[in-house]
Write a structure and sequence with these properties.
By secondary structure, the protein is of the alpha/beta class. The chain contains 13 helices and nine strands. 41% of the residues lie in helices and 17% in strands. α1 packs parallel to α7 and α4 (109-140) runs antiparallel to α5 (147-161). The two termini are 32 Å apart.
């Protein structure tokens, strides 16, 4: 599960990546991308690990990609090659500046979000038009294109020409025939409003970003927190009156954005969180552990986490009929 980080220049993409992944700021070499895989914080895994004292504890994972984005040509549109690196990501994190920066206009999250979102739509429109032209050329040669694909491309083109991202039409965005095109505006998107250290309030006014799943973070503060030890972080959080790390919330939002949940297996060898789409039947969840478990599936004995916690153990929960 990978999320690609995008944003206009000076939005704080590197800051957010460093805060999320706990990596110190790095100046990427020309053409080099930064990728980090991190654990999804989960108090349920912590409790289960304490309860079963396993030899190994494994958390769910999420991967973040910060692509190398070359400078824009004379302030024009972002080159398609710059966005192509996040096309294979499962979702996008769109970082929007909401802090003052010398030499730049006053922050305007609504303006900046719309500007880059329109670029995503334009990049997708180019892909859709090229494919439509290819199908038209095939028709002239006597080939019969898939009428379903033609209809989907026509619907995409109509939305994109209006500057409307495809993710606002889930049925269209998730159409299997379009999956191979890796359309950017079809990807689930988490908007990160990057605030200054002293402000944790959402931006004033309204903007298109409000239609999306969004979080407000103090990027620089969170980046500093990510480099601290546990004790240092606790003092720092108390000083700023912060109850919990925004990055933890953001990681959970990333996970939820793709409709994923965790189920847990426990034992002396390992306590582990497994990632599955919400609504997965138990027999398919077994396949996430091993295909043999799915093939030979008989039944699953399942207890809800809170019931297990209240009972104090699996056998106790079983005796209670949970």
């Amino acid at each position: 599960m990978q999320l690609g980080i995008i944003g206009l220049p000076q939005a704080g993409k590197q800051t957010i990546f460093s805060a999320l992944t706990g990596t110190a700021y790095q100046v990427a070499k020309k053409g080099e991308h930064q990728i980090a895989t991190i654990d999804v914080p989960d108090s349920r895994v912590d409790f289960l690990s304490d309860l079963y004292n396993p030899a190994k504890t494994t958390y769910a994972k999420v991967q973040y990609l910060l692509p190398h984005l070359p400078a824009r040509p004379d302030g024009g549109r972002m080159p398609d090659a710059a966005l192509s690196h996040v096309r294979t990501s499962d979702a996008l994190i769109h970082v929007v500046r909401n802090f003052e920066l010398p030499g730049l206009p006053a922050p305007d999250p609504a303006r900046d979000f719309k500007a880059l979102d329109e670029e995503l739509c334009f990049a997708d429109l180019v892909v859709v038009e090229k494919r439509s032209e290819r199908l038209a050329a095939d028709k002239k040669r006597g080939k019969k294109p898939d009428p379903g694909e033609e209809a989907l491309l026509s619907a995409c083109q109509a939305m994109l020409e209006q500057g409307r991202p495809l993710r606002h039409d889930p049925a269209l965005a998730n159409a299997p025939q379009l999956k191979g095109f890796t359309l950017l505006s079809a990807k689930p998107t988490l908007v990160v409003i990057n605030n200054p250290d002293e402000d944790e309030s959402p931006p004033r006014g309204k903007g298109a970003w409000e239609k999306e799943r969004f979080v407000v973070v103090r990027g620089k503060l969170e980046e500093e927190l990510a480099q601290m030890t546990g004790e240092e972080a606790e003092v720092f959080l108390a000083e700023y009156g912060v109850a919990d790390r925004a990055m933890d919330r953001m990681i959970h939002e990333s996970y939820a954005l793709l409709g994923m949940i965790s189920f847990f297996t426990v034992g002396e060898d390992e306590v582990r969180a497994w990632t599955i789409p919400r609504g997965t039947p138990a027999v398919e969840a077994a396949g996430a552990i091993h295909t043999d478990l799915q093939k030979g599936f008989i039944r699953a004995e399942v207890v809800a986490y809170q019931d297990l916690k209240n009972a104090g153990g699996f056998q106790e929960a079983k005796k209670q009929g949970k």
